Structure prediction request, 684 residues.
Amino acid sequence: MKRRTFAGIGAGVFLLPLAAACGNGDDSGDGGGDGLVVGFAQVGAESAWRTANSESVQAAAEADDRIAELKFVDAQQDQEKQIEAVRNFITQQVDVIVLAPVVETGWTDVLQEAADAGIPVVLADRGIEAADEDLYVTRLGSDFAEEGRKAGQWTVDTFAADPDGVTRILELQGTTGSAPANDRKAGFFEVLDGEGLAYELVDSQSGNFTAEEGKAVMETFITTHGLEGIDLLYAHNDEMGLGAIQAIEEAGYAPGTDIQIIIVDGSKAGFQAGVDGKLNYIVECNPVFGEQLMDVVVAVSEGDEVEKFTPVEEGVFDASQFEAELPNRQF
Amino acid sequence: MSPYAKRLMWPVVILLALVAVNIAATGVDFIVPSVNDDGRLGGAFVNILRRSVPLLLIALGMTLVIATKGIDLSVGAVYAIGAAIACQTIMDSSDQGAAGTVLTAIALALVVTAVIGAWNGVMVAAFGIQPIVATLILMIAGRGIAQLITGGQIPKVEDTSPFTELGRGAFLTIPIPIWIAALALTALALLTRRTALGMLLESVGGNPEASRLAGIRSKGITVLVYLVCGLCAGLAGLIGASNLGSADANNGGLWIELDAILAVVIGGTALLGGRFFLLGTTIGVVIIGTLEDTIINVGLSSQWQFTAKAIVVFVVALLQSPGFRAWILKPFKRTPQARVEAPAPAKAEEAAK
Prediction:
């Protein structure tokens, strides 16, 4: 409990808005039985997504007989702490190091030390710069562009037979310049353009992955463009989408009916809004990849060939599936 | 023109220019309020005013703190704490709709945030810690405290709870946040302009030691001012949280302290302490709020947001600089100057302030 307290305070210290899409920490969990010792340097405890991610990894390590111990370090969004953690793992001669890097750069030295010590490194969630590609075995994480493509595919399927011929779209982007925002946008429009859907992007602004800004931007969209004739709102995460839903309701429209809504992430609150009929499609950004991560870790330690990038298994959910899926949501 | 009106003139000119740009881009509808189905005033400009209320409350508190030559960096974190306490209290209660629950939650949040503000004041006044350092402590630790309160999650209040009325409701068709802001502005203006408090504040900001020797209890006044600032930040957090029906410990009121300081400066209050302008701060807040909408309305992309803000602040800062104004107006002022043979206008203006 005490460590969790410090983790919380630490997360408040080093707030990084870019992590809002995927993004939390806890103290260490010990697995049972003989097997691998795994060191996990987690980003921090900055969002509900990250909490779910940490809990998933710890639970999976606990349940997995192949894992003897998971050494869990919460870096409180500080790269220095992560480098320190990785060095400690090397000194302790763990079998596999799992790293969820805070930033993309500055990993060459410490990862080279791990390589020299013969300890394989697996990246979780986020990546590092291409120049250091040889210093890790594989990255397990979300494919943000694929998430965008899934949203795009649903849009094409739903609006191909749009009676007025042109699908008019509003977009709420994530934090400007962040990988999830860039890739979710690019993947979405790649499919729309590729499939030849007749669409008009009426407006696209950043809501910074927060409910507050999502709501404010949506209010302005409504006063500037009106909602008449707008077919679709594409929100890069559910916080922004949920904020926008409030703005739409307060303006006297029915979200999910008057305007169709796609969100990415899929938290409990997002699914609840889906069950209430206020949105139409959820593309999952899955933090619960603990079990998949353990499989990768074991494969890596046994020297198996693995792809450089292992996408996390992520689903999509439409209106018919919201209610059934809601109880399964972990964040 | 009185010096006071002169101070307000440039921010008002900028605001009018921004409004004009918006009207040109989106039509007269921008400024004309409409009535929503639920009997609340809406429309673009009313929305801007409503959304600006949390920033305004914080900026008003910040104006008073800056008048005493201080600064409060912790307001964003205090915002998050206020929001977290209110939402968590309501969420933990058995009946989220009960008026008693909501009032308890609001009272608890306000008391805690006022105490936090007073603590900042005590560190500055009694222990002599520099304001920027004293309040930096809570700016850093405050969000951690908010996270402890919420357990790292985002507490959500049911839409049916009367708490959400604070941010979304209306009284006599005018949105409740705007009422709160108007009341706060009037109360602070009366307190500082109709009583000696305002003069005492300016005196403490101008020279604390001289004020103390003149018999002013400057320490007590400093603590009071930080208390009011904390209270304003807590109230802002309540309004923000009730608008969303949730409290985000990480992102709620993030960087709002910088926007608040910006609004104070745009409004003509100098960071050196002394004279302060509550109405100027208010106009500064509306400028910032309008600016964010303007970027969307004229069709600029999100990447422009910071640059556009910087350009407007740059223009305001230049316009407020007597030296710059004298330089730019020189060619136009030559004739009257020659006739009256008065000293340089810049100096006269400076003296007037």
